[in-house]
Amino acid sequence: MTSKEPFTIPKAVCVMVVMFASVCMAWDPSTPQPNMYELPPASLGVVQEAKAAKARLKTVLPSMIMAHRGESEYCPENTVPAFAAAVAGGFGFECDLWLSNDGVIFITHDARIGGKKGHAAHGWTQKPFMVTEWSFPALDSGLPCLHGAGQRFRTQHERTRATEIFLRAMIASKPIVGHSYFMWVDEPYWGIRKELPEDSNYGLLNENDEPYPLVDVFARMRPPVFSRSGREYSVRNHGGMELRGRIGGRQMIDAVSLHGAEIGSWNAMLQFEDCGKPVWCETARVVDVDWNTACRMLTIRAEGVTGEIRFAVTHEMEMDGVRPSFRARCAKIENIGRADLKLERIYFRQYASYATATVNKTQVPSLWKEPKRAEWNDPATGRRWGLWTSAKDADSFFRYYINSKDGSVHPDAGFKPHESVVIAPGAAYVPPKDCSWAVAEADLTDHSKEAKVK
Which residues contact 320 (CB under 8 A, 6 or more apart)? Predict the structure, then answer.
């Protein structure tokens, strides 16, 4: 700025000065205030110190002195006692005012995601709120990243990981109903303009319209859609996979479809000992279903009965946002009968809807860290519907076959508990989380025309 240029105060600064001055001028500690707090005894001494400090400062600083968020050394910042102590000491004060989308004003410095302050803000307003203008620049973008807010990271990989963690935290926080990412495209290398020199890697795209890897995070993090009408329930993701079932149905999932094409179904089965003989029994009636949007988790409880044995199995199915797959876990087994349940094996029953299903035999034997898997496939259409796990320390088994004598289908996949499990009547068994899961995935790609490796 040259000496000939007129000096002007930006409008935003004027508004903030007026707001702060209005707060200070309107505050009269001698007037009773609603919900007014008494000054803490510890703050009385600081008031005297503050007055003395103000007198000294006025000799060298002939200006208004503001207490940042009130007198916060002896009082909690941004609270009525902190403001009262500041005014009693002869200072003005500034505070952080938030305006919710329904017009409620509340005071806090920041509402940290998943932390006490975010939930405190929700507690004060009893209203949901949105998180706006957030992002994480990375230094390997080629931009200076010297101006503008936000946590910096070294690489796009770190930036992408931080974005996913932050997104998951927001989704898991009940008061937060939405967010606004900042921004669509990167800022210019030399800054936006002279008055706004921001030059950071905020964009989903660079200036050449090339997307960064974190774009995939936003696509993947879109939650599946759950719906329920009467006894019918369904959940579908943005990759075209849909699971459908009904309360009272014989299977946990009556139909699994991909892009409208039905590929199979899903159920639970237990192997246990009864009168000294092994018995295999599937669940035959769905009794309860629940959906957790934050965890993307479909929870289904179904019951089975054979002879004197009655049991209930609960499966948790975590569905990906865009991939044609879900991660299933046997979460609980309950004995709802009158006799002990001597558990031997726990099964995931993955049926195929196409009659020409054959067993996949292309798996390479003894491949290092190769997950255990089994798969139904249809050479005529290229459809695949399989199950795999890489769970550690799991005594798991995966063997799908069709009985050549009667044509019966056997999707035998699951795991065996490490120790003998006997569930007493009214009791429950919770399998270890690290060895009781598998991933079901589907594929409609026509692989019949692929070149065979000889």
Answer: 220, 224, 237, 239, 296, 326, 327
